[in-house]
């Protein structure tokens, strides 16, 4: 190995130790820490982050990255080329961010989570408003410190961190196409005379039974319990500590069992990606951060929706469902179950509980508010009112609560810019599923319970180059198609036209 690369690997290993420690503390903060201990967790996370950042700002580290990128790049293999290219980009991005500013930002984001959690509990946006404003100002400050910042459109620079190659021009067109395709379909559903049976969705189910069903689903989908675990939290997430430690979290509600069911299928999708990416991602220190959020969301939503809400999947897991919930769900048929999990709750204000049809409309609202925030035009004092206005306009929902409104998501506590990746993910899997179906017949494979064959196809086609290609090139490599919203709109139209007996 190149001596300079070997030295860089050594520094990256040290940074990964600090990052790992910070991740564990963050996991504790969001799953098990008592309220009184949260501030201590936030303090220690900031400390470990600063230790890692000191290495990233050292002359040795910057020198090695710059030298490898400028003079040794052509001699590197494909994985190390990707590593050095991305590290050089990060060096340039944080070049003028000193350690003091970085620690200030990390402390703000960590404390912001605590303030958000209390404001949500109190159903009071005004408790969070000053902090949200500070988060915006910090985000803007960090962006303007960059040499290549698009000062006329901060959101372009911001979103490039998550999806290289996408701009607001791409996003505006994508979301406009989605709105034009989904809103008329939603209006047809709203006017439909046929409504799927859904009374059983709110039946009381013990948390113990739900926990048992969680394990059955994860096992059925291919989750490796020797390299992963499950816990509970306020806002479900998946944490990737390394190739052999992927932790899934969920939230149980006694009167909403499918909330956990689909949270766990979704987060389990993230975990399957993490457990099955090429080993080179770790041996070359690329890590999860190089997989892009849209790619990750495409996989989690592929398992959650394209597979998890399909008639074939419901039929395949029905025996386990009936065995565990025999008392509560004994009168629920396979078709009841299938149509019920695809029922469109026209009054649901929560993104995380949204059906496939309305989900991206929630994202459109967040994207447009983020654009407004990053352009400096947002009025933070009345942002909750603007949120509610857009919900009424786009989703037809008359929401008044902050808890189920602007405070429902934790994401803005740590910045802006990645909400669009959730909808991009939905669109991406509707493109590559066509290639999968052509190769292995998706419906038949799911119905027969051969989830291992699906995982193998995903490893060979979806996961294999995910860390090497940007999202536009990646989807073209998998499917031969350019990225667009149309396959996603077609998928939703076909599915909900059938379920709701639309003309």
Q: What does this protein structure show overall?
A:
By secondary structure, this protein is mainly α. It folds into two domains: 3-148, no CATH class; 168-499, Neurolysin, domain 3, CATH 1.10.1370. Helix content is 65%, strand content 3%. The chain has 22 helices and three strands. Strand 2 (238-242) and strand 3 (245-250) form a beta hairpin. Helix 1 (3-31) runs antiparallel to helix 2 and helix 18 (420-440) crosses helix 22 (486-499). The mean pLDDT is 95.
Helix content: 55-70%
The first-level CATH class of the largest domain is given as Mainly Alpha
Measured between the Cα atoms of the first and last residue, the distance is: 64 Å
CATH-defined topology of the largest domain: Neurolysin, domain 3
Broad structural category = mainly alpha
Radius of gyration: 23 Å
What is the count of β-strands?
A: 3
**Mean pLDDT score, rounded?**
95
The CATH architecture of the largest domain would be Orthogonal Bundle
> Strand percentage, roughly?
under 5%
Q: Can you tell me the residue ranges where pLDDT is under 50 for at least 5 consecutive residues? A: none
Secondary-structure element order, N to C: HHHHHHHHHEEEHHHHHHHHHHHHH
The coarse overall form would be globular
Instruction: List the strand order in the largest sheet.
Output: 1-3-2
Per DSSP, the total helix count is: 22
Draw up the topology in text:
Layout lengths: L2 H29 L3 H22 L2 H12 L7 H16 L5 H24 L2 H20 L9 H7 L7 H24 L15 H15 L6 E5 L5 E5 L2 E6 L6 H20 L3 H4 L9 H15 L3 H14 L1 H4 L4 H8 L14 H19 L8 H13 L24 H21 L1 H6 L3 H13 L7 H9 L6 H14 L4
Parallel strand pairs: 1-3
Antiparallel strand pairs: 2-3
Helix pairs in contact: 1-2, 1-3, 2-5, 3-4, 5-6, 8-16, 8-22, 9-10, 9-13, 10-12, 12-18, 13-15, 16-17, 16-18, 18-22
């Amino acid at each position: 190995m190149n001596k300079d690369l070997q030295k860089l690997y050594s520094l990256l290993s040290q940074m990964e130790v600090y990052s790992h420690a910070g991740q564990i503390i963050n996991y504790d903060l969001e799953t098990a820490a008592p309220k009184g201990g949260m501030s201590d967790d936030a303090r220690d996370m900031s400390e470990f982050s600063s230790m890692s950042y000191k290495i990233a700002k050292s002359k040795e580290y910057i020198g090695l990255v710059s030298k490898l990128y400028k003079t040794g790049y052509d001699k590197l293999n494909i994985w190390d080329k990707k590593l050095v290219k991305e590290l050089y980009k990060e060096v340039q991005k944080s070049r003028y961010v000193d350690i003091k500013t970085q620690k200030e930002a990390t402390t703000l984001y960590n404390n912001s989570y605590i303030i958000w959690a209390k404001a949500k509990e109190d159903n009071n946006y005004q408790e969070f408003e000053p902090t949200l404003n500070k988060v915006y100002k910090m985000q803007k400050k960090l962006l303007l410190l960059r040499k290549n910042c698009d000062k006329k459109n901060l959101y372009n620079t911001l979103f490039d961190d998550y999806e290289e190659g996408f701009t607001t021009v791409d996003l505006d067109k994508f979301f406009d196409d989605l709105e034009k395709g989904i809103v008329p379909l939603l209006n047809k559903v709203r006017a439909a005379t046929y409504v799927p049976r859904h009374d059983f969705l709110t039946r009381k189910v013990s948390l113990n039974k739900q926990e048992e069903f969680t394990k059955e689903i994860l096992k059925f989908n291919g989750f490796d319990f020797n390299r992963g675990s499950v816990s509970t939290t306020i806002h479900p997430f998946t944490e990737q500590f390394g190739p052999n430690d992927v932790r899934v979290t969920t939230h149980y509600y006694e009167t909403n069992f499918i909330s956990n069911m689909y949270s766990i299928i979704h987060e389990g999708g993230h975990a399957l990606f993490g457990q099955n990416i090429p080993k080179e991602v770790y041996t070359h220190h690329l890590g999860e951060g190089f997989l892009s959020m849209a790619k990750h969301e495409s996989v989690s939503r592929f398992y959650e929706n394209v597979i998890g809400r399909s008639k074939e999947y419901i039929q395949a897991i029905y025996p386990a469902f009936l065995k565990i919930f025999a008392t509560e769900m004994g009168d629920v048929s396979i078709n009841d179950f299938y149509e019920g999990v695809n029922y469109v709750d026209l009054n649901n204000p929560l993104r995380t509980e949204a059906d496939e049809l309305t989900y991206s409309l929630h994202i459109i609202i967040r994207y447009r508010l983020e654009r407004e925030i990053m352009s400096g035009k947002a009025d933070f004092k009345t942002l909750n009112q603007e949120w509610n206005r857009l919900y009424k306009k786009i989703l037809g929902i008359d929401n008044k609560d902050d808890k189920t409104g602007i405070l429902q998501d934790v994401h803005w506590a740590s910045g802006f810019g990645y909400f669009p990746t959730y909808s991009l993910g939905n669109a991406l899997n509707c493109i590559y599923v066509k290639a999968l179906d052509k190769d292995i017949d998706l419906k038949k494979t799911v119905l027969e319970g051969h989830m291992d064959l699906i995982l193998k196809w995903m490893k060979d086609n979806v996961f294999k180059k995910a860390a090497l290609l940007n999202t536009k090139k990646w989807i073209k490599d998998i499917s031969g198609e350019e990225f667009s919203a149309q396959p996603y709109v077609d998928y939703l139209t076909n599915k909900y036209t059938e379920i709701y007996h639309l003309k």
